[in-house]
Every structure is written in structure tokens, then in C-alpha cells.
From TrEMBL:
Gene Ontology terms, MF aspect: beta-lactamase activity
Organism of derivation: Nonomuraea gerenzanensis
Domain Beta-lactamase-related: 23-335
EC numbers on record: 3.5.2.6
Protein name from the UniProt record: Beta-lactamase
Keyword tags: Hydrolase
Membrane-crossing segments per the record: none
Length: 474
């Protein structure tokens, strides 16, 4: 790798980060790249507006849903050791696993947990429990509180619940708590030296907190919640790390399961399996899914990625095998995802020379909207779809199951769970773009803003997909 090219890349990412943070009220941002044996991290701004602590290259942050790739890696380690079989039902190992639809859990395979094809309808289920029994509490609550969206393997829907069940499955077969297992089998052999799983550990070193835009002034204000409950650990609620830690983990997957120190963490076969397509909805807004990894196509180049929301922050990990590159980033407002998308596309286009074709080239006026009208539901969410002035209008309503769910989700969302109606224009039958966005906005990571409808029967769509998550017609 040409050192000059890496120095140019480092300077460019620093300049773009500083400019975006100033223009968009992002207090702090940190990004790192490993490419062909060279590595750098750049940091900008403030990690915590309450204390004024600066964002540094080694500042820790919540990994959020990037943790899902770590959880998947832990499961595949147990497959390598012959302890788990991906194609056996989860109840083989976790007989207490049940949902509120009789027999539904019995049909879910271990593989379905990792490929987001399990159908567990628990996306906003937040039981509040701490400590060694937190995941057991989560699984116990599924039996009475959560049902299914679809038959296992039938559809794809981003699944926090599936990853948390996988975490509990790991606890049962290893005898260790999820945090203990994460520290022993990933943090240590990968070389994630500054990673932890609790606020108590994070406070011993420099750690960023999230911020939300003030609804009146748009100025960032510190979050009132640092982590989600321990029940959400395997889905991304509690693990904390640094850019260097994420780059080390990404490099392990780049190197066929061997860590930067030379330790084999995962077999080459399992590492490859995680990167292969396990389910494809064949819709531009829902990239093909591997195991743990989401496979984002940028033209002919595949970016293995996972982003992670935390209370007032967002992380990103990308591995690009054909270019021997890993990118990791964190920003401490939700809007930092726009900068992450901008930087990823700049790295692809300008640094790697990847041609990124337009994902959406036009909108249409001749699409029949009636198959999509109706009410769709998923866990504690209702989405009412109607036709207004020739466009689809969606109204999303949060319907909390109880006061605890409402408190936790409201804090996680920064104090508000309501949103104004959103209007969509047709791209083609079954695919819609939010009105008012330039079409090039959807070329990168923000393709998730597109909405699709699936499985039209008797003139009515059965499912709506937004942000990779399904809701089923009520």
C-alpha cells in the first residue's frame, strides 16, 4: 500500500469529519481504516458534552448492533467445536425457548437466529433485568409476550430477539455468562484490549456518551441513558470498545478467522460461511444477509457491514475482502450515520476506485398504490398506510406493552417516540422512496430509508419492510 495514498486518505477523512460535525451539530466522531497492512485512526470533537472530554483515537464507545457479528462469531466457534449444529432446532439446546404461538419456537433453527430469518416478533421487547440471569429473563418473557411475524426461513427481518436468544443459547452450552464468554473467546484472542461489557468497566477509561438533538434548538444534548438493559447484551446493548478493537475484529474476518496476533479465532470455513448469502429478499432496500454480516452491494464490490445504534450514538464496521480493507467509525449523535455513509462512499470511490452505480434512477407516477394501503403491525408498532395526493402516507404509532417497555424505549429514542407522517413516492411496484430526498441519497448505506412491500396476494401486500424490519398486515 502506498504510504502517500494512506496519508491522503487520513487527511481527507479528518477534513470531512470536522466539516460535517460543525455543520450538523455532531459533538464528536472517530474513524479508523486498515488497508493492506497500513492503519490509522482520526478523532474529532468532544466525547461527552457534560464533561467536555475530547474524542480521542482510543476513546471507547458502545458497539451497538455491531455486537451481532461478535455474537454470531461466538456461535460459529461452538459449531467449530461440535457443540452446536446450525441446522438443529434451538429447542434442542434451549428447551425452555417458546413464543406465545404454540409450537412456533420449535421450528426455529440455530441458523435462523443468525440470518435474521427466525420470524420472532420482539424487536422492541425490553425487559429490564441485570446480571447473570438477564438473558434467561429475556427468553422466559418471550413465551408470554412475543409471537411471530412469519414462518422461519420464509422472510428476512432484522432480529434483535434472534441474537439475544443466540446469546442465551451460548450461555447454556458453555456454562459461562455472555459477558464472560465474550471476554474469553473474542476480546482476548482477537486482541480487543480495551473492550468491556458494562458501564462499571467503561468508567475506568475514556468512554464517549451519546447525544440527541434538542427538539427546539437542534443543539446536541447528552443522553440520559448510557446502555440498554443487560437483557440486550448479545444484540448490542452493553458491549463497549474502541476503533482499534473493531479494526482488529474486522481484520480477523479479513484473514479467514486468524487474529492480527496470529491466533486462530474461527475456522476458515465458518468465517467464509458468515460472509456467504444466507437469504436474499431481492429488494434494493434490503441487502442480502449472510450470517451476522449484511452484504451491501456497491456495484460489483461487496461490503460486509453492520451498524449499531446506541442511546444517542451510532457505530459502523465494514469489511471489504476483495480490497483488503476494514473501516470502523463512531459518532455521538444518531445523525452521524450520514457522515459514516459519506465517508464509506468516499473510500470506495476515491481511494479504491470502485464504481458505484445509481440504485434508484427515477420515480414513477403510474404505479397502483392500492395493494399497499392498510395497517401493518410488528412488536408494539402500528403503521397505517393510506393514499394522499397520489403518494403513500405512513403514520407510525408506538403502542407500548407496559410502562417498563415505554420507559426504556423512550429513553433509547431520546425522549420522543412519535414521528410526523412520512410520504413516499413510487420507484416501481412494491418499492417506494421517502419524498423530498435526492435519489443519489440511496446509493449507499441510506438505501435502508427505502420502503418495500412483499408477498402480494389477492391484491394486498402481506408485509411492509422499512429499515430491514418487517411489519405484517393486521
Amino acid at each position: 500500500m502506498n504510504n502517500n495514498a494512506m496519508h491522503l486518505l487520513e487527511a481527507q477523512l479528518h477534513a470531512q469529519s470536522a466539516a460535517f460535525c460543525a455543520a450538523s451539530h455532531v459533538p464528536g466522531f472517530v474513524v479508523g481504516v486498515h488497508h493492506a497492512g497500513e492503519q490509522f485512526t482520526v478523532a474529532h470533537g468532544t466525547a461527552n458534552l457534560t464533561t467536555g472530554a475530547p474524542m480521542l483515537a482510543d476513546t471507547g464507545f458502545l458497539l451497538g448492533s455491531v455486537t451481532k457479528v461478535l455474537t454470531t462469531t461466538l456461535v460459529l466457534q461452538q459449531v467449530d467445536r461440535g457443540v452446536l449444529d446450525l441446522d438443529k432446532p434451538v429447542v434442542t439446546y434451549l428447551p425452555e425457548f417458546a413464543l406465545n404461538v404454540p409450537g412456533a419456537a420449535d421450528r426455529i433453527l440455530v441458523r435462523h437466529l443468525l440470518s435474521h430469518t427466525n420470524g420472532i416478533d420482539a424487536d422492541l421487547y425490553f425487559p429490564d433485568a441485570k446480571g447473570r440471569d438477564a438473558l434467561n429473563t429475556y427468553v422466559a418473557g418471550l413465551a408470554s409476550g412475543c409471537g411471530t411475524l412469519f414462518e422461519p426461513g420464509e422472510q428476512l427481518s432484522y432480529s434483535n430477539g434472534g441474537m439475544i436468544v443466540a446469546g442465551r443459547l451460548l450461555e447454556v452450552v458453555t456454562g459461562l455468562s455472555f459477558p464472560e464468554l465474550l471476554a474469553r473467546d473474542l476480546y482476548a484472542p482477537v486482541g480487543m484490549r480495551d473492550s468491556s461489557t458494562s458501564a462499571e468497566q467503561a468508567i475506568l477509561r475514556g468512554t464517549a456518551i451519546g447525544h440527541f438533538p434538542d427538539p427546539e434548538t437542534t443543539e446536541p444534548r447528552p443522553t440520559g441513558m448510557f446502555t440498554l438493559p443487560d437483557t440486550w447484551g448479545p444484540a448490542g446493548g452493553t458491549p463497549i470498545g474502541t476503533i482499534a478493537d473493531l479494526l482488529a475484529f474486522g481484520r480477523t474476518h479479513l484473514a479467514g478467522g486468524v487474529s492480527p496476533s496470529g491466533t486462530r479465532v474461527l475456522s476458515a470455513a465458518s468465517t467464509a460461511l458468515m460472509q456467504q448469502v444466507s437469504h436474499d429478499m431481492r429488494s434494493p432496500n434490503v441487502p442480502p444477509m449472510g450470517l451476522g454480516w449484511v452484504r451491501y452491494p456497491f456495484g460489483d464490490t461487496t461490503v460486509l457491514a453492520m451498524s449499531g445504534a446506541s442511546p444517542g450514538g451510532v457505530s459502523l464496521l465494514c469489511v471489504i475482502p476483495e480490497h483488503d480493507l476494514v473501516l470502523a467509525a463512531f459518532g455521538n449523535t444518531p445523525g452521524a450515520i450520514m457522515l459514516q455513509d459519506q465517508l464509506l462512499q468516499w473510500v470506495l470511490r476515491e481511494h479504491l476506485g470502485v464504481r458505484i452505480p445509481s440504485l434508484v434512477t427515477e420515480t414513477r407516477q403510474d404505479v397502483d398504490l392500492t395493494p399497499y394501503v392498510g395497517t401493518y403491525r410488528s412488536d408494539q408498532l402500528r403503521i397505517d398506510v393510506s393514499i394522499v395526493d397520489g403518494r403513500l402516507e405512513e403514520r407510525t404509532t408506538y403502542e407500548p406493552a407496559d410502562a417498563t417497555q415505554e420507559r426504556i424505549f423512550t429513553e433509547f429514542a431520546g425522549g420522543t417516540t412519535s414521528a410526523p407522517p412520512q410520504h413516499y413516492v413510487p420507484v416501481r411496484p412494491g418499492l417506494f422512496a421517502p419524498a423530498g430526498y435526492p435519489l443519489e441519497a440511496f446509493d449507499g448505506y441510506l438505501r435502508l430509508l427505502l420502503v418495500s412491500y412483499h408477498d402480494v396476494r389477492d391484491g394486498r401486500a402481506r408485509f411492509r419492510n422499512g429499515g430491514g424490519r418487517l411489519a405484517r398486515r393486521a
